[in-house]
Amino acid sequence: MKGSGVEQLSGLDASFLYLETPTLHMHVEMVTIFDPSTVPGGYSFAKMQAQIASRTHQAPVFRRLLVEVPFRLGHPIWVDDPHFDIDYHVRRTAVPAPGGLRELADLAGDVASRQLDRSKPLWEIWIVEGLEDDRIAVIVKMHHSTVDGMSGAALLSVLFDLEADPGPEPEPPAATKQQRIPSSAELVSEAMAARLFRPFEMTRDVLRTGQRLLNVRRVRKEPEHRAPQAKAALPLTAPRTSFNGTLTRRRQVAFSAIGLADVKRLKNATGTTVNDVVLAICTGALRRFLIDGDELPDKPLVAVVPVSVEPGADAPRGSNKVSSMFVQLPAQLDEPLDRLMAIREGTKGAKEEHHALGADMLVNWAEHATPNTFAAAARLYSRMRLADRHRPIANLIISNVPGPDFPLYLAGAEMVAGFPLGPVMDGIGVNITIMSYRGVLYWGIISCPETMPGVWQLAADIPLALDELLAAVGEAPAEFRSAQSAAAVRASGVNSPAVGTSDCADSADSGHLR
Asked: Residue 357 pLDDT more than 60?
């Protein structure tokens, strides 16, 4: 808003608000485990809350509040919350004994099942006590309109330190004059003025999109892209599975972990990338899960893979700079190496088509989202259970977020594991998000329990899929318990069959922190 000191949401950021329904929650989570023995002077909830409070002024996301434009004539705006209350946002809770990963995951699923209150800044942090070995956990929950994967990772640098005792906190900035919230008349006036330019912007984007579609067609006609497995998957071509249906409000969470060194061994042995190997592990785990349910399709699954976007000079402002690729996961192939090689070719083709289409196309077109129409369509789609009536747009979402390879600390407590969680959508009932941290890939899996009740079984299949790939290329089984990554995993408390060891055939119900 001109001259008012407030910020309007970009179309993409606002779209995550318009998409939200009582059963579709557009927030993301990070479940982290900490060793409080490193806290100078000993751990207390008050110390944790005080440090988080002292850092909130360093990132606007923590103190900004949504204000809707009257009649939803335009995208909402962010303003500073004049009644910000740290006690509302940083909460204390505990898990029941024995305080293992299953209990922590149950709590994370319950937190994920509840929408954020839009009358407050759109985030919560839960400090979780009662874990085994006197560990604590921190569950960070933020609305997707405020962060994407990369900007969410950047927020870690605001809350976390590189050492247990970084010294005294810097003085917070001097209090400034309270920001004035624009009047309804001002908001309507700005929205109507913006609409005057919309036809010109839409014409520009139509012309750009037409040219880019021709570019995609040209790429698909090149000899190396004529094979079906060398092309990007298309929306609405995914086979239906049991987890591709209408959601309820409930969410269920499971965790897994594997050594990054083992993934790199596979990458080096096959001439692929870490992302290719991660997608192949997902594919192998999904194949096992679908075979167990007697529902393995005879054609590839389709995954939505978010991609970070480098915005151009004329790109709209906003917290989310993300696009998506549609990637084939050939779970129907018997041989694990064949699956990996098909994924290598498919992701290469998907990247080239994505580049031809333009990574910023989603960001640009989202600017034209009409709030009332968009929100009404999302609610109608959920209420009429339309996801059950057509082929899935995709089967699942898979996201791989790079994390630091050095330790992080929160109020002196050392972070020893971090499991990211993204949203699920009607018709796309599973989200697998992976984050690397200190030589370990941590997997967060979230689903709707009415569509996929066996989410822990899928988690248990991940290390099995890793060992299957290693065996296929003549490599030794996962070095999970002997490499440096194994020490990190043991320290994180996830050295249990359900979350990362190679001998987990009957371990879907395990999940202790030792």
From this structure: no
Mean pLDDT of the chain: 82
Three-class SS of residue 132?
helix
The band of 501, judged by pLDDT with boundaries at 50, 70 and 90, is very low
Q: What pLDDT sits at residue 425?
A: 94
CA distance 397 to 249: 18
Interior CA angle at 305 toward 104 and 150, to 5°?
A: 65
Distance CA 439, CA 258 (A): 9
3-state secondary structure of 334: coil
DSSP letters, 140-203, are EEEETTT--HHHHHHHHHHH-BSSS---SPPPPPPP-PPPPPPPHHHHHHHHHHHHHHHHHHHH
Higher pLDDT, 455 or 207: 455
Q: What distance in Å separates the CA atoms of residue 414 and residue 430, rounded to the nearest whole number?
A: 30
Q: Which of 89, 144, 225, 512 is catalytic?
A: 144
Beta strands at 409-410 and 413-421: parallel, antiparallel or unpaired:
antiparallel
pLDDT number for residue 227: 55
Both tokens of 424, joined, read 């699920």
Which single residue is written with the structure tokens 């919309």? 198
377-436 per-position pLDDT tens digit:
888 889 999 899 899 999 999 999 888 999 999 999 999 999 999 999 999 999 999 999
250 three-state secondary structure: coil
Q: Judging by DSSP bridges, how do beta strands 396-401 and 322-329 pair with one another? A: unpaired
Under 8 Å between Cβ of 52 and 171: no
Q: Is 144 a catalytic residue?
A: yes
Give, as one character, the DSSP assignment of residue 297. Answer: -
Output the CA–CA distances (angstroms, integers) from residue 405 to 255, 415, 477, in the order listed.
20, 12, 23
pTM score of the predicted model: 0.84
